[in-house]
Structure formats: structure tokens, C-alpha cells
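Data card: per-record layout.
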Amino acid sequence: MSLSLNWSVKRLTTKFEFKIARSAETYYDSVILELSDGTHTGFGESLPNKRYENGADAVCALLNQFKSKILDLPVADYESRQSALENLFPTSFSLQAAVDTAFWDLQGQIAQKPLWKLFGAQKKMVTSSYTIGISDLNIIPEKIREATPYSLLKIKLGTDYDHDIIRAIRAETDKVLRVDVNEGWKTLDDAKRGAEWLAEENVEFLEQPMPANQLDDIAKLYEFSPLPLVADENSVRPEDIPGLVGAYDGINIKLMKCGGLTNARKMVDLAQQYNFDIMLGCMLESSVGISAMAQLGSFAKWLDLDGNVLISNDPFMGVRNESGEMILSEKPGLGIAPR
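The structure for this 339-residue chain is written out next.
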């Protein structure tokens, strides 16, 4: 099979400034891959995260350097393909994800089946949350109004005014909240106080409360916390999962961290093996990345697949997000198309 590969950079603009404990952004540069066999075109997305790798320019440089090797990868043998991708791009997990996703999309189209069926998943999945980033308190009412259709809110904390943020949100809504600290609490005492206080605020779980390199402290918090703890920055790759036993109740799997659908499936299997609850999350990807992760949606207890509804200029159509209800397509592969 003769393949061709093209790519382009799309600037994705956020509806609001997207601020977490360690960064604030108004746009993200996404690298969109198109992998074609002459009849079908598979899409993939690389949205490099500053915490883990360099930006879109570095991704494009790698694509230019290794294009011929990518085109030699097997379409159907995903295990050997993933091994080759990790050797080619050991420091760019998002590029691994983009290439792997494009091959899976192509494979699904050739098989004339949506990927969720190839993966043994179901079309129906739980409701996804909608993220409220850190912001000035006077903007919170506007953000809550924007989130009116969504029943579950994911709140970013990790500031010196966390209590004020929650109070401002609670002045607007009594919806169930999920809290993501993005490593923002640096001491065990702060984390204990935060977990105890949030347990009184109708919070469902607490995500990555402390820095990933403080796993011993997180294990102590786990013994104390009245809320379930979910790993994010601690659950990057499949090999991370065994070491999280006794520190977390669940793990968050993201394509841009784990290296694609092949590794995401491995992480689902490992999470089940080690009795972790599963959350499927995202960066602020377009409908390419969100549609890809949604193919595994039915395996998750929690979903946070809202990246494509937090941007104002999604260049693709794919999985639909109707007030948090994720609606997959019956179309083959990812079921996406350019706008």
C-alpha cells in the first residue's frame, strides 16, 4: 500500500483565556496530519503541551525529518507501529498520538467500521464535564452562564484565592463540581485542608492535587482524603500505572500525553487490572483529537472531553457534544470531516 502524508498548523482560539495553575493561554497551535492511501484519508492531531514537550514548530521539524519512516509504518500492526513511533519520537508524545490516530482512522475507513466498534466499545457513554479555567472573580458569572447547558463542571484551582473561586461559583450554581488542581498545592497540609474543605462543596473528586514528583505526599493525602483522588500528571504513560497503587483512586488518560489510541487502550486495560477508575480527558484539541478519544468513551467512569467546545474555531466536525452528551458517528474511522 502506497501512502502519502501532509500536515498543516491550525491556530485554535479559546473562547475564554484558558488558565490553569501553571499557565494561561488564549490560543494553541495544533498540527493536523492527513495520511492517505489514495482512496481514504486518515486524520491525526498533535497539540503539544508545554509541560512535556516543545511546540508546533518542533513537531513540524520532526515530521519533515522522519516523513519517509512514518510512511513505512504498518497500517494494521498497531503494536509494532507504536514501538516504532516511540523510537522515532521519544520526546514528542503528541506527535506519537497524531501519527497513531491517523493510522487508526485510515484502518477504520479501510475496514468500513467506526473505531469504537473495532475497539469493542459501545456508542453510549457517560456525560462529559465542562471546564471552567482559573480567572478573575468578576469573569466567573459569565463563564458559568456559558456553561449553562452542562450539568457537570470541572473547576481549575491551584491559586492563592481558591476559596474565593469556589464561593463565586457557588453563588451562581449548585451543580456537581470536579476539581483539578494541576499540581498547584505544594504542601501536604495545604492539600489536606483543600480536600477537606472541598468535600463540603458538592465536589465529586480531586484531580492531581500536588506535583507529580511528590507521590509519597500524595499517598499520605490518599489515606486522609474524603474525596477520591484522580491522577493526571502522574498518569502520563502505560508504565506509570502500577506505581500509582495506594496513591490514587483513578487515572486520567489523555491522547496528547500517552502517545495515541494504541497506548490509551493499554492504559484502559492496565487501569482495569489495577482496579483504578478511568477518566478520559483532553487538552484543548479540535474535533480530531476529541473524536479520537471518544472512541474509547464507554470504558470510562468519568469523561472530560470538552476541548472542542472550549475553542471558537474548530476546523473539523466529528463527535457531537450536546450539553455534555457525547454522540459518536456511525461513519468509519474517526467519523470526522473538515468544516
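Known properties of this structure: The mean pLDDT is 96. The CA atoms of residues 220 and 247 lie 7 Å apart.

See the next section for split statistics.
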